[in-house]
Amino acid sequence: xxxxxxxxxxxxxxIIPLLFYVGAxxxxxxxxxxxxxxxxxxxxxxxxxxxxxxxxxxxxEPLTKLWFRxxxxxxxxxxxxxxxxxxxxxxxxxxxxxxxxxxxxxSRLTANDSxxxxxxxxxxxxxxxxxKQTGAGTVxxxxxxxxxxxxxxxxxxxxxxxxxxxxxxxxxVFVVLSKSKSKTPTKKERxxxxxxxxxxxxxxxxxxxxxxxxxxxxxxQSEKDNTYENRRARYNCETP
Length: 240
What we know:
alpha+beta, four-stranded antiparallel beta sheet, 11 strands
């Protein structure tokens, strides 16, 4: 038999009197289940060991809930009915009796917290030994950190996500501003456009003036020619 099996047997022998102590022997059955093993990085800081139970054929009455630990030392009673006698801030019990669940949270994890954690449920007034049961135990393995902790990894993912959103936002703003600037003429472009308009207007005015002068000169020459022709015709008529 290995050390863990021997430890469970020893712990069972020590727990049975305690379970009978919390109530004398009725006829109902209690069953308790726990996960076989939990592995956690001590950098996580805390770990919760769940325990679920079922009750059949029992009269309604307050339950006695117990948590034990079997480590390298002798078995240790951690909590009874939610009250943890030693290191109260180290161990915390959470109960959800409506769902027949209870759990033990271990805080400030160290390598020394690696042990077998056992959940016990008892109905004190029942005479049936099956009304006082323990789970098979959960082997908790606290391992040293070999990389980034889960919390730190989540933090880095969140930071990278926010950074990505920021970069996308800055890019969108830059594109919008670039398009806006491309549609709005600069001061130099406005000045050049104004100069071109002024030069075009000046050219049109000069052309108009030249055309007017040319038109006036042509009209005067035509009038002179008509006057000369009229005088010549009159002279021819007066000569016998």
